[in-house]
Structures are given as C-alpha cells and as structure tokens.
Automatic annotation (TrEMBL):
<keyword id="KW-0732">Signal</keyword>
<dbReference type="Pfam" id="PF04674">
    <property type="entry name" value="Phi_1"/>
</dbReference>
<protein>
    <recommendedName>
        <fullName>Phosphate-induced protein 1</fullName>
    </recommendedName>
</protein>
<keyword id="KW-0964">Secreted</keyword>
<feature type="signal peptide">
    <location>
        <begin position="1"/>
        <end position="24"/>
    </location>
</feature>
<keyword id="KW-0052">Apoplast</keyword>
<dbReference type="GO" id="GO:0048046">
    <property type="term" value="C:apoplast"/>
</dbReference>
<dbReference type="InterPro" id="IPR006766">
    <property type="entry name" value="EXORDIUM-like"/>
</dbReference>
<comment type="similarity">
    <text>Belongs to the EXORDIUM family.</text>
</comment>
Length: 336
C-alpha cells in the first residue's frame, strides 16, 4: 500500500536532515528508527510469511473507471507494455528483475512476465463516483460479467486486475491516506479469490500528495523555492499526475506480486498494516535518495526527471524497491 502518512512523515521529518542521512543505507536506518521495530537486530525485518507469490506469468487486466483522456491511457499502456518489451538499459524490465528475486516456500521466483491481456472501460461509473475499498471488488465483478460490452475473462489462474479511477472519482482514503492499494477479491463478491490493485488519478484532487516529485509536496509545510514551477522535477510524459501514477502502479504491482494474499513478504508483525517491499523505499528513485531527496536520476533534453527507459522511446521515473539480496533499496539506475 502506498501510504501517504509515511511519505509525509519521511519528507517532513527528514527534509532538513538529508545531508546528514544522504546515503540510502543511512536513510533506511533512519526510517527504521521511525518505525521502531522492537527486538530486531536487522535494519529492516522484512520476512517471508509462507504464503504464495505471483510465480506464474501475470495476465494483467486494466479496468478504466470513469472518463479517461486517451493520451493518458496510452502513457500507462506503454508503461505496462514495457515490462515485456526490450528497451535501452536501464529499462522497466530491468527494474522488475529486483522483484523476481523474491521466492515462495517452494523456491519459485516471482515471474518476470507481465502481459497486458485485456482492457475494460467502465465509462458509466457502474458503482457511482464515490467508492469504498470494497467497491473495487464490485467493479471487477461488473467487468467480468457485464453484457453491455465484451466482459473481461475471469482469470483466477494467473489474472491480476488493476482498477484505475479517473480524476472525478472519490475513493475512501484517497488523497488522505493512500494513493493506491492492493488486495484480493472475496468469493462472496467475485466468486473467486484473485489479486487486484487500485490506483487513482490524482490530477485534480491531490497531485501534491500522489504525484511526488512532479508536483510540490504541499503537505510538507515547506514552500517551493522561487523558480521551481511548483515541482521538484518535470514529468517525462507531460502530465504530473500520470507520471506520478505510474510510480504508484509499479509500487502496487511489486507489492501485489510479493504479497498477493497478505501472507507472504512484508515487514512488521501486523498483517493489517504490513510494510511491504515498495513501502520500504518510498520517495527513493536513485542513489543517495531519501528524506526529501529523490536521489541521482537522469534528465531528458527538456530537463524532466526519469530513471527508466520504456517502449517507443518513452521515459519513466519510478521509485526503487527493497532488494532482498543486496538488503537495501535498489533500482537499475543505481550508481553502485
Ligand atoms: C530467484 O531468487 C533467488 C533468491 O533471491 C535468486 O538468487 C535467483 O537469482 C532468482 N532467479 C531469478 C531467475 O530471478
């Protein structure tokens, strides 16, 4: 889950201290102190809790909920297609290699294959514009059963459903506590147990919270410096909320793959509030990142920030994740 309080806390409490905590490892140490994990001698007590991971190739289904700008949709589509298509190093699929280092109790790694397998347009807001966490399951149920258009397949073997809500949809906790979350469907609602994730388009509601660092984090209480255009860096695909959403999408994909039933990989002892592999690296996009500093990333010819290459010459900026072998936050743009 992309937890805003966590990001706000990190930004707020460490903004003026990032010089003192400038290395990723120190950042982790600092983070860990905030969380105050009792009794753990390890810096991060990320543990495997014996449940399954997504080891079979993932068939990803997108559910566009509400009215979507086709340009925004193609940016997200290109990002998803970048998992399975070659692009110059460091690419989106290079980034995913860290995720494939996680295994289950049978020794199976998380898959390296994510295929965009279907899209559904819920442009009539089947569950209204006010959604709870549970509404996501009804949206999926509708998408796999409707007779108004071609329904999505109900793929309980290796399907993963992503519900993406448009700017005018209000979601419980969206913009107050979360930018996205992942969970699994209940047999009583959808008929089967399938992992899914929701991510909201933050454009009109809270880019300052969910589109960091492309929109200035207003909640930090720190004023943007003069000449900063109200952001920390420009968005590589032209829309702060979409570029920010892409990092939240990959955050949720990483976590749903490593903790699909909330009983596999997470830190902390509370499964109702697990700290998962992407939560551990919130706000870190490059070497030295943390505490309000994104880290060392690239700049495109317009000066926009990015750290990964994708299909069609696209560039994306996505956060790092916890690497279980290196035991630190990592991405393929790392300097070491
Ligand atoms: C599977 O995970 C193990 C343990 O992290 C790792 O050593 C190995 O390289 C991984 N294999 C692949 C194909 O990613």
């Amino acid at each position: 889950m992309q937890n805003l309080h966590l990001l706000a806390l990190l930004f707020y409490s460490t903004f003026f201290q990032f010089l003192a905590f400038s290395s990723t490892q120190n950042y982790q140490y600092y983070y860990n102190q905030e969380k105050n994990y009792e009794g753990s001698s390890d810096l991060i007590d990320l543990k495997y809790h014996m449940g399954p991971v997504l080891a079979s190739s993932i068939n990803l289904y997108l559910i566009w909920y509400g009215q979507w700008n086709p340009k925004h949709q193609s940016t997200i589509r290109d990002f998803i297609n970048s998992f399975s298509s070659p692009a110059p190093y460091p690419s989106v699929s290079d980034w995913w290699r860290t995720i494939t280092l996680y295994t289950d109790q049978t020794g199976s790694n998380i898959t390296n294959t994510i295929i965009l397998s279907g899209e559904f347009h819920d442009f009539k807001y089947s569950q209204t514009k006010y959604l709870t966490r549970l509404s996501m399951q009804s949206i999926i149920k509708n998408a796999v059963t409707t007779s108004n258009q071609r329904p999505l397949p109900l793929n309980y073997h290796n399907g993963l459903y992503l519900v993406l809500t448009s700017s005018d949809v209000l979601v419980q906790e969206f913009c107050r506590a979360v930018c996205g979350f992942h969970y699994f469907t209940f047999p009583s609602v959808v008929g089967v147990t399938i992992p899914y994730a929701w991510i909201g388009y933050s454009g009109t509601q809270c880019p300052g919270m969910c589109a960091y660092p492309f929109a200035w984090p207003k909640y930090s209480g720190i004023k943007p410096p003069p000449g900063s255009n109200d952001h920390i860096m420009g968005a590589p695909n032209g829309d702060p909320a979409i570029d920010g959403m892409i990092s939240v999408i990959v955050h949720e994909l990483a976590e749903v793959s490593s903790n699909p039933l909330i009983n596999a990989w997470y830190a902390g002892d509370d499964p109702t509030a697990p700290t998962e592999i992407a939560d551990l690296c919130l706000g870190v996009y490059g070497s030295g990142g943390g505490g309000g500093y994104v880290g060392v990333v690239y700049k495109d010819s317009w000066g926009n920030g990015y750290n990964l290459n994708g299909v069609k010459g696209r560039k994306f900026l996505v956060q790092w994740v916890w690497n279980p072998v290196r035991r630190r936050c990592f991405g393929p743009n790392a300097l070491d």
